[in-house]
Amino acid sequence: MPEHERPRLASERRVEDFWSDRAHGAAGRILTGATLAFADLGYHGASTREIAARSGMSPAAVYIHFESKEDLFLRIATEGHRASTAAFIDPAGLATDPSTKLRLAITSFAAWNADMHILSRMIEYEMRLHGGERFSDVARLRRGVEQFLRSLLEEGVSTGAFDVPDPEGMKILILSFCIDVARWYHHDFRRSPTAIGVQYADLALSLVLKH
Amino acid sequence: MPEHERPRLASERRVEDFWSDRAHGAAGRILTGATLAFADLGYHGASTREIAARSGMSPAAVYIHFESKEDLFLRIATEGHRASTAAFIDPAGLATDPSTKLRLAITSFAAWNADMHILSRMIEYEMRLHGGERFSDVARLRRGVEQFLRSLLEEGVSTGAFDVPDPEGMKILILSFCIDVARWYHHDFRRSPTAIGVQYADLALSLVLKH
DNA sequence: CCGATCTCTAAGCATATGCTTAGCACGTTG
DNA sequence: CAACGTGCTAAGCATATGCTTAGAGATCGG
Q1: Rounded CA separation B207/B170 (Å)
Q2: Which one of A76, A135, A182, B2 has the fewest CB atoms closer than 10 angstroms to its CB?
Q3: Would you say the C-beta of B59 is within 7 Å of strand C?
Q4: Helix B98-115 to helix B117-126 angle, to the nearest 10 degrees?
Q5: What is the pTM of this model?
Q6: One digit per residue, pLDDT tens: chain B, 211 residues?
Q7: How far apart are CA A106 and CA A82, in angstroms?
Q8: Could you give the residue ranges of the DSSP H alpha helices within A90-192?
């Protein structure tokens, strides 16, 4: 059985599910194959032939749905960052006080980085190879998450709920350990993505709450 | 002025210094050029011509000192992991009680990952492309750090200094935020690598100490 | 049933890539 | 000074790569 036809692992199925919600038919299969190829081999290591093979198509078929390899990557990076950002920001909208907002945001964000670790890691590792105007949307999304967390911390300080002498440093620290989940997590891990989310939210709150 | 001849940034000079202690003459220049090229462009994105240009040599000259591109990478990964491991484990030898050992280890390790962020990140991001027998030394070094920290936590629990219900989870968490320093740190950051080291050691101790 | 359209493949083009070969300059040694 | 070894370069080889072209098969409206 050729590599690209073996049964999907749990982690890979999460990538498949991600794209089945966001693209139909051949485009979805290509986006799935490309995400997995980029994740396994790196951007330059994943040839268009490899991506095509993992999508079950010929190399030329890819170019009917996407203008170029970079275009494919841009699409994956954009949708990936959109989902990651939404995982952080959207749940916080359900609460009004800073503590609950932070708890909801971190629970969801850390869980997303565990559950979607292939996509998250691929985005994080390969984005540095792609700067410039074309990727300004992605850069905006990244700044959005940072600003949202920064504001949340400052809000907590001003209401007296949080004790954070250095909000900028705390923002970096919290985002850092959440994002890094994608580097080490895998779906055979003894704890579920949700359990990671809860653990990390407890950690974040213990760092910022007055004691 | 061509790209490979512009003055080195502070971060790049740290790479240069690293290799000047570990290789002489042309080999050192090649290892420096290759480390920077791999870091900027990824393993497959860094062509042997690019590496040669950054070393100020012709492509063929590289092959006098190294058998292949993968050989070059293996050398960088091995020496990088050796230094990273030493930064973690060696300082702990100066103390006997678990708390001080942990403080020394984390201070040094987090500072190393900040100071050497180009090398550390390059190792972390590109190693996943290289498994197999040839890289077993690197894998052994990585396991060594994990086992050392795990033992340190268990020692602290058994002497009564630490309160850690889940040493495996704590090990992962502490290594995670230390390693991730390399992803976001840069030498224009408002705090020095040493300051990061101290901050992170405080954080690690606050997580494990009885309170 | 015919033509149009949409999706895909086989083959190919130009260039980039990892690595090799042949040879040159230069310092050292007999 | 000649012979040699060392560290390098220019040029080249075989293959891999991103992408294009020409055309095949299937589907659908008229």
Answers
A1: 8
A2: B2
A3: yes
A4: 90
A5: 0.95
A6: 455 567 889 999 999 999 999 999 999 999 999 999 999 999 999 999 999 999 999 999 999 999 999 999 999 999 999 999 999 999 999 999 999 999 999 999 999 999 999 999 999 999 999 999 999 999 999 999 999 999 999 999 999 999 999 999 999 999 999 999 999 999 999 999 999 999 999 999 999 998 7
A7: 16
A8: 98-115, 117-126, 136-159, 167-179, 181-184
